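Forum: Protein Structure Q&A
Topic: Joint prediction for protein chains with partners

I've read a bunch of threads here and the consensus seems to be that you should model interacting components together rather than docking separate models afterwards. I'd like to see that in practice. Below is the full input, 540 residues plus whatever partners are listed. Could one of the regulars post the assembled result?
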Amino acid sequence: MVLYKHEMKLNFKSLLIWTLCVGVLCFGCILLYTSLEESMEGIADSFSNMGAMSTAFGMDKMSLATLKGYYATEIALMHGLGGAMFAAILGSSLLSKEEAGHTSEFLNVLPIGRGSVVFAKYLALISNIVIFNLACVALYLLGFICMGETIAAGEMTLYHLAVSLMQIEIGTICFMISAFVRRNLIGAGLGIAVIMFAIDMMCRIIPAIENLKYITPFYYSNASDIFTNGKLDGTMLLISVGITIVSFVIALLWYQKKDLAS
Amino acid sequence: MEKQKYAISIQNLTKRYGKYRGVSDLSLNVEAGDIFGFLGPNGAGKSTTIRSLLGLIKFQKGNAQILGMDVKSRQKDILKEIGYMPSEAMFYPTMRVKDVIRLAADMRGVDCGKEADMLCERLNVDRNKKIEELSLGNRKKVSIVCAMQHKPKLFIFDEPTSGLDPLMQAEFFQLIMEYNAQGATCFLSSHVLSEIKKYCRHAAIIKEGKLLCVDTVENLTKTSTKRIRMTKDGVEEDFVYKGDLNELFAGFAGHNIEDIVIEEPELDEIFMHYYKED
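Posted by a regular:
Agreed with the consensus. Here's the joint model:
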């Protein structure tokens, strides 16, 4: 618990910055919708008829002419990608930063055990992702209220649950990587987030690789799908939770038996 | 707990890093209440041995017990009783010194504010500074406080004095002596021979991952070898002599000896002697 608090404190600044960047940016974009609205009506049709481009961004399903549609395509895109990058950066350095910063000899000679170290740090990762999402959602709701729009509570809840799970999966995969390495592979973490995002867009356009949708958590957390269907894909959620658990267990087991660098 | 004869007991410890040698077949006992020096140049395996004992790295062969507890199965219990100071004293750069010291105590679940106050006072630690503002020597002092504040039964120091100024080194050893008088054992690695000679009772010499010898510091320095400094016929000479002293003096006949000092060789000369053999 002491380590958990310590970890939360160390990550507080980064959490604040990311929440402000992503949350305030999206909040601002929601407020901007008023000025976009009129012109949007004109271009919404052309946006939804751009073929593959529209499919990739979900603009074939949702119209940009409503705030809801705008939210599900544009805002959700920024929130999803921003959140995934935050989770990736945080996850990919949580364990490895001790060795990279030469603090592993300080931390691991304290009588807490490496298993507890992994648990405390992982709990901090999950907490950071949850706080990030709650704070962002609060800002978005505020945005909707400022715009005087009704909030699609059901879809919003489902989407933000899904997108949080997506971030947790990406964060956990990066967390696992950080258990193996001795340097902070932030680049690799960001790479995973962006590749997963790219796979999602590709498999929506190219039928031959459609099954890749089971790999990328961006697919099931796609806002335009969720706002259109009003439900989540159970199989994909299960796969995602499975990958998350397996990644965590591998991180836990490996970190306990590895030789720590000084 | 039952009083143990040995604070540290190592049997046939072997640790390899892939192809590289770490430590091979090392056996060593450190008696409870001792101040034990672990000597060797950089890369000899001192840190590998220490890090194996602390469970930071996993060794392939052999066994080790600390305070009678097996290092593989009772790591957490052992760490409660140990104060360890790594050679590289690094902490979280953005934290303040007092928070680091508090963190170490809190993670141990003990309140050692009073002891920490005393240590900070004596070592002259500025507790309001941030870690990133500190020099190596000052980080070392923080490391000493973290290793000592919970009054452990066993101290393990990996090259403790590097970066410390002579006054702080003296204060550091003074603290060790005080804790030692209260029953604590101290195991310190070093390549500075003079401090081992001055403060340790027993010492071991390690070379290329193998233990060369273990003995009292007194015995290690007491040999038939003598160091001789003299001024003969106006010429200053300084050499190490091994053999019959009578023969040496016989050789002086007919020379003008203005000054002569015959003394035990320094530990480093013995050290070099062990290292040159082969």
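The first helix of chain B runs from residue 46 to 53.
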